[in-house]
């Protein structure tokens, strides 16, 4: 594309040409564009120079387009229609939209959210392709650079001003162990008991930036330094299967045990801490997408699905309800 030639082009000339074709009269064309007849005549002169053709000849009934003008007519109508469509804004229809969205999402959240999201999208946006990644370093930089459309993760301690956030909910971390684990005998196991067992770790990118670390630095320190890690993986199902088959322990959200097909054979135990600990999950997007109908529509659907994570349980039976506090639907907040 020769952008230098385009930079010298005045789009108003094409608008004037279209009006001249419709009116076939200089004064009437001038009236429609709210300019003087003299200015319209000068514009016609510039058009003749641009296309190297008279474009119109005079007759007793007005101006008659030349063959070159008629040849240009359909092309210019198409160009102006496209420009008008661009400046008028996108018409977004989920049913017919074809495109791709890329989302970074932790496996903790993905195992609950993504099947429900894809079920919804197959009904409402069947042509949309979704790519999800669970192991993405520098997620905020990827959002900025366009490598990601959304990130769903544990809230960070700090975000730059160009990011928009929506709360998806919160939950309390627990210890996940197999049913029949020796720790089950203690309703609230202490650290002396916990450190007797090896630990499985699920890889999480940029863990040092998480807001959670500020809340429970002591708990993480004890897990990292006092409890022996024997296995790390980025695959949640693999980690849970190791816990299910051994006496290993793993820290995670309690809602994983609420799904029989996934958390069967596992149980949750509270962490030995007196602090009120919350894992806050957020949906993050860069401000470059804030005027995109697609991104706003999909964000609303994701936030709406976070309501599915609520688990109605009596507090005495299980104080650790999944995503017990959900965010306000459809409202972006600045970081």
TrEMBL record:
Signal peptide (UniProt feature, chain positions): none
Pfam families the UniProt entry points to: HTH_1, LysR_substrate
The protein, known as: DNA-binding transcriptional LysR family regulator
Domain of life from the UniProt record: Bacteria
Taxonomic lineage: Bacteria, Pseudomonadati, Pseudomonadota, Gammaproteobacteria, Cellvibrionales
Domain HTH lysR-type per the UniProt entry, residue ranges: 9-66
Similarity-based family: Belongs to the LysR transcriptional regulatory family.
Keywords: DNA-binding, Transcription, Transcription regulation
SUPFAM superfamilies per record: Periplasmic binding protein-like II (SSF53850), Winged helix' DNA-binding domain (SSF46785)
Taxonomic source organism: Pseudoteredinibacter isoporae
UniProt-listed InterPro entries: LysR-type_TF, LysR_HTH_N, LysR_subst-bd, WH-like_DNA-bd_sf, WH_DNA-bd_sf
One Gene Ontology term of the molecular function aspect: DNA binding
